[in-house]
């Protein structure tokens, strides 16, 4: 996603190379909140809210108090208070929207635990912060080697250094409880910083590492999704999906978060369907059992016990009517199938002008093009050659079609020639006397006119 205008209104050059420290849009990270009150001025006599929201490494946000009344804007890099020392972060929200965000997260405005903003980050602070960030990848690889040598059943997924390079936070995932006391001692001696271990879940790990999903797009948890709701297999059942763990699981090994996206629409559409759990349609021909349903077409397919391969489509209203009749003790003769309307192909017209034909997949398949296939058409066959001059094209391996009437007429017009030239010449003379033209010279006669 490109940035809107010249980044770097704060102290850092923003843009995609800095994980979204853009002063205007801030749309390069997944934790962005649109400030829809940014272009509005405060009423006269009212002081702006003294809390700001600060983001650290695109993974966590915290609220800090602006005790010095600094003129802070979205995208500014600031030095904030930490448990020990100071940290460097980027402001993502200011003003009254911070109050709403704190209410949403249940944070207390007057709490004494809220830390404060020291100052806008200086160039020395930024240089030290970037130096600490450059050490994160090598530190993670070295820490993985140490954990493997200690025989710990854990996976280190990410490392985050504090802005003053005095503390390192190690994020890990583990299936069982891990005793990492010895690991902390070794890491502290190796890197000479304070060590903090934080256990995260599989989904949080996928959001930090990122990746490409089976849909071909970037993972939702690493691009825009911030809350991880519980996903059950019932969501797949309601949407008539196959309960295949390989297809329903995401990169994290858990059920895909996108299974909940359309679940509400399916639940609303299923309200009109009758509950066929343990039920069947009673007819005089036999009992019919439900085989499958089409939720959005409101169709249900039934089959008889003795005819399992024959599916009878019924709409939802017909099924409700038959069930009500069965409750009264009435049974229809048989199920009458409902005619299905053929689905019309929806043609989407392009919303752009196409003067050069760039949307056609066969735009380069032109007749008479260069290369080896210049004498071949789109089907890969050679075109038929045009006859030269008045010479008709030769047809190979095709027997000539004879017209019996025409052959009989030709037999009457053309005399039958024999091997004797004198007899042929006399026959031509007799035919010429009958008014059929000059005598025919077949080339075998020695007579000269």
Question: What are the SSEs and their pairings?
Answer:
Layout: E1 51-56, E2 60-65, E3 77-81, E4 86-93, H1 96-105, E5 117-120, H2 123-134, H3 136-149, E6 155-161, E7 167-173, H4 181-191, E8 194-199, H5 202-209, H6 220-223, H7 233-238, H8 245-248, H9 263-269, E9 281-282, E10 287-294, E11 299-304, E12 312-315, H10 316-327, H11 404-413, H12 421-433
Parallel strand pairs: 7-8
Antiparallel strand pairs: 1-2, 1-4, 3-4, 3-5, 6-7, 9-10, 10-11, 11-12
Helix pairs in contact: 3-4
Characteristic key phrases:
single chain; 449 residues; 15% strand; 4-stranded antiparallel β-sheet; elongated; 5-stranded antiparallel β-sheet; 12 strands; alpha+beta
Summarize the structure in words.
With 449 residues, the protein is of the alpha+beta class. It is 25% helix and 15% strand. The longest helix has 14 residues.
Computed CA radius of gyration, to the nearest angstrom: 43 Å
Number of helices: 12
What is the count of β-strands? 12
Low-confidence stretches: 1-27, 406-412, 434-449
Mean pLDDT level:
79
Instruction: State the end-to-end CA separation.
Output: 98 Å
Physical arrangement of strands within the biggest beta sheet: 2-1-4-3-5
Instruction: Give the percentage of residues in beta strands.
Output: 15-25%
**N-to-C order of helices and strands:** EEEEHEHHEEHEHHHHHEEEEHHH
């Amino acid at each position: 996603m490109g940035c809107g205008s010249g980044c770097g209104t704060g102290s850092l050059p923003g843009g995609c190379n800095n994980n979204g420290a853009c002063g205007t849009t801030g749309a390069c990270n997944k934790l962005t909140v649109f400030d829809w009150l940014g272009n509005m001025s405060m009423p006269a006599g009212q002081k702006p809210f003294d809390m700001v929201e600060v983001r650290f490494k695109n993974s966590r946000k915290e609220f800090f108090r602006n005790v010095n009344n600094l003129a802070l804007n979205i995208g500014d890099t600031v030095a904030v208070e930490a448990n020990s020392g100071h940290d460097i972060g980027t402001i993502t929200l200011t003003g009254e929207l911070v109050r709403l965000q704190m209410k949403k997260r249940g944070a207390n405005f007057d709490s004494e635990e809220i830390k404060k903003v020291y100052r806008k980050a200086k160039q020395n602070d930024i240089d030290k912060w970037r130096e600490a960030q450059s050490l994160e990848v090598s530190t993670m690889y070295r820490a993985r080697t140490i954990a493997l040598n200690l025989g710990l059943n854990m996976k280190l997924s990410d490392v985050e250094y504090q802005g003053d390079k005095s503390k390192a936070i190690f994020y890990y995932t583990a299936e069982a409880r891990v005793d990492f006391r010895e690991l902390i001692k070794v890491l502290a001696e190796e890197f000479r910083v304070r060590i903090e271990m934080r256990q995260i879940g599989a989904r949080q790990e996928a959001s930090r590492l990122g990746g490409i999903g089976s849909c071909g797009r970037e993972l939702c948890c690493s691009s825009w999704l911030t809350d991880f709701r519980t996903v059950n297999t019932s969501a797949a059942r309601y949407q008539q999906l196959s309960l295949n763990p390989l297809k329903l699981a995401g990169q994290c090994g858990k059920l895909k978060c996108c299974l909940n996206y359309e679940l509400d629409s399916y639940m609303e559409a299923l309200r009109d369907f009758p509950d066929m759990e343990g039920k069947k349609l009673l007819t005089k021909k036999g009992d019919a059992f439900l085989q499958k349903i089409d939720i959005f077409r409101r169709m249900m397919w039934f089959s008889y016990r003795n005819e399992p391969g024959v599916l009878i489509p019924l709409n939802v209203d017909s099924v409700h009517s038959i069930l009500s009749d069965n409750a009264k003790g009435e049974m229809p003769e048989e199920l009458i199938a409902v005619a299905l309307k053929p689905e019309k192909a929806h043609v989407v017209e392009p919303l752009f002008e196409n003067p050069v034909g760039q949307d056609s997949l066969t735009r380069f398949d032109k007749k008479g093009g260069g290369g080896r296939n210049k004498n071949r058409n789109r089907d890969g066959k050679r075109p038929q050659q045009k006859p030269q001059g008045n010479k008709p094209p030769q047809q190979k391996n095709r027997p000539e079609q004879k017209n019996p009437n025409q052959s009989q007429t030709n037999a009457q017009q053309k005399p039958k020639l024999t091997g004797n030239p004198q007899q042929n010449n006399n026959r031509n003379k007799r035919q010429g006397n009958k008014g059929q033209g000059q005598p025919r010279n077949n080339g075998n006669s020695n007579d000269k006119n």
